[in-house]
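Quick one, tokens below. Sequence please?
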């Protein structure tokens, strides 16, 4: 299937590694002109080089923290300055810290998580929207978590705040549909990324077992019997964001090997 991505201009936030990187790599491999973003300049430079070589496309790398409104404005403005337009926005940010309700007795961790997870998405969309409105195939896709469908133990901040992202984007899918801008969410299940191993290591330390034990236990709970890979996730986001999914909007799709138990 031709996804119709050749020459499309895309921004993938927080894409120097993990799920964002896999998404950017897939978009580039399909012919999109991708802007990647990250907080670590060295890692970002390596990622840009690797994606450019693998895809044979021109990859733009823009340093910045998505918790910083100025960095968001720079990311969008510089992409449009260099590329001349914007067709695809993939909203992503590092997840908030793991923990239970008792782990965060003060307001600040909650406010920080709101800024990182919800406000970064809101600001990215608000900044990119004037340019997406000029595209005939504009799309917004957020990378969230299966916690929006089924709360995950020890992730109280994510469980609470990512659902706000779904409320925002579902509302926007209604508001922007008449302007041919699609808005969707994709939810990774347990996928082999740095964040999953970090959270797993914290659980392992609390339980006095190895990280391998924790990951094996997680895999055993998944109907497919294994964890996902970033590449598997990235392919789904690339499709949802592409013109090939031109009648898909307002959807929250999990990519989790069947692990979410809800009916919808």
């Amino acid at each position: 299937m031709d996804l119709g991505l050749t020459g499309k201009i895309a921004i993938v936030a927080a894409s120097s590694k993990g799920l964002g990187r896999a998404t950017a790599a897939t978009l580039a491999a399909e012919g999109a002109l991708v802007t990647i973003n990250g907080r670590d300049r060295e890692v970002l430079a390596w990622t840009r080089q690797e994606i450019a070589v693998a895809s044979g496309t021109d990859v733009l790398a823009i340093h910045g923290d998505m918790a910083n409104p100025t960095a968001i404005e720079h990311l969008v403005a510089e992409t449009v300055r260099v590329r001349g337009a914007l067709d695809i926005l993939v909203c992503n940010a590092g997840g908030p810290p793991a923990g239970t309700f008792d782990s965060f007795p003060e307001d600040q961790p909650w406010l920080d998580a709101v800024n990182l997870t919800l406000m970064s998405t809101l600001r990215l969309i608000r900044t990119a929207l004037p340019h997406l409105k000029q595209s005939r195939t504009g799309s917004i896709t957020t990378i969230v978590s299966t916690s929006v469908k089924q709360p995950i133990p020890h992730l109280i901040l994510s469980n609470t705040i990512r659902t706000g992202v779904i409320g925002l984007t579902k509302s926007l899918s209604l508001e922007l549909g008449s302007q041919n801008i699609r808005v969707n969410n994709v939810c990774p299940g347990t996928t082999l990324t740095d964040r999953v191993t970090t959270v797993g290591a914290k659980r392992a330390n609390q339980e006095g077992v190895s990280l391998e034990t924790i990951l094996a236990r997680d895999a055993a709970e998944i109907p497919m019997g294994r964890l996902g890979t970033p590449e598997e996730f990235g392919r789904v986001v690339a499709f949802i964001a592409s013109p090939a999914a031109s009648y898909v909007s307002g959807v929250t799709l999990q990519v989790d090997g069947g692990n979410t138990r809800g009916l919808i």
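The mean pLDDT is 95. The first helix runs from residue 18 to 29.
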